[in-house]
Amino acid sequence: MDELKLVVASNLIKLRQKAGMTQAELGEKLNYSDKTVSKWERGESVPDAYSLMRLAQIYGLTVDELLHDDTAWQDPAAKARAEEKAAAPTFSSGMVTLVAIVGIWTMAVIMFVVFWLALDVTVWLIFACAVPVSLITLLVLNSVWNKGRHNMIIVMLLVATIVTLVFLFLLKRNPWQLFLILIPAEILVVLCFHIRRRKA
Question: How far is residue 179's CA from residue 110's CA, in Å, rounded to a whole number?
């Protein structure tokens, strides 16, 4: 019996504090004095059956949960969240990234075929444009799912592909000087990724 009193007392204290109520406020809801609530919480007595039913209603639990150690029960909202999480469909972040990138390349192939058939022109630069678009997609998804791990490498590749793309668009003019931009640009990317706030 003493163990039951202690379990109920512990549960009542935790539940009342979690609800942000004083002993007087809880007593008022139950039509008891704060002294009675205090006795319950000190383990000197156990609420009667009616009071246990009212307490269970107030806290959204069952009477059985009130009478057992709180490790046996969970907050109903937390229980509902856990059930929702278990019921939610799970997916692989790597597979989503792969689907997105393959989707980009599928669009590039479709555009290439349309230009080829409609205009009788083979526009190979469409594939060159798909590279930076793929890298931007990878950068965004990597930031979301992998907390930005390896983002520096992705950004460095992105800078290199953009410079290469501009070079390919201006190929007739042979603008090899564009690649001189790569050296300071890549150094800038590395430096930007190593900026850290100083600890105060």
Answer: 30
- Alpha-carbon distances of 149 from 3, 26, 91, 139, 194, rounded to whole Å: 51, 50, 20, 10, 13
Q: How far apart are CA 131 and CA 70, in angstroms?
A: 56
- What is the chain's percent helix, strand, coil content, to nearest 5? 75, 0, 25
CATH class held by domain 2-87: mainly alpha
Name the pTM for this structure. 0.53
CA pair distance 54, 49, nearest whole angstrom: 9
Given a contact cutoff of 8 angstroms between Cβ atoms, the answer to whether 150 and 183 are in contact is no
How confident is the model over 70-106, as pLDDT tens digits? 654 455 555 566 667 666 667 788 899 999 999 999 9
For the chain, the domains span 2-87, 93-193
Tell me the C-alpha to C-alpha distance, in Å, between residue 68 and each of 50, 65, 143, 165, 179. Answer: 17, 5, 44, 68, 72
Alpha carbon distance 126, 12 (integer Å): 68
